[in-house]
Design a protein that fits this description.
mainly beta; two-stranded antiparallel sheet
Length: about 50
């Protein structure tokens, strides 16, 4: 008997598998870096992970 394996997970094309990205954000005259979760994969880093 052969077991069916799930297809290999592919990195999200929007974030390249990084699960998000850093953006510059200005607050009270200072620029800080803020982490933003990737919306396309829901922060999983896997294509279709946010569904």
């Amino acid at each position: 008997m052969s077991e069916q394996q799930p297809p290999p997970a592919r990195a999200c094309p929007a974030c390249g598998g990084a699960k998000g990205h850093v953006v510059d954000h200005s607050h009270d005259g200072k620029t800080v870096q803020v982490w933003r979760t990737c919306g396309a994969c829901g922060g999983t880093g896997i294509q279709g992970g946010g569904i």
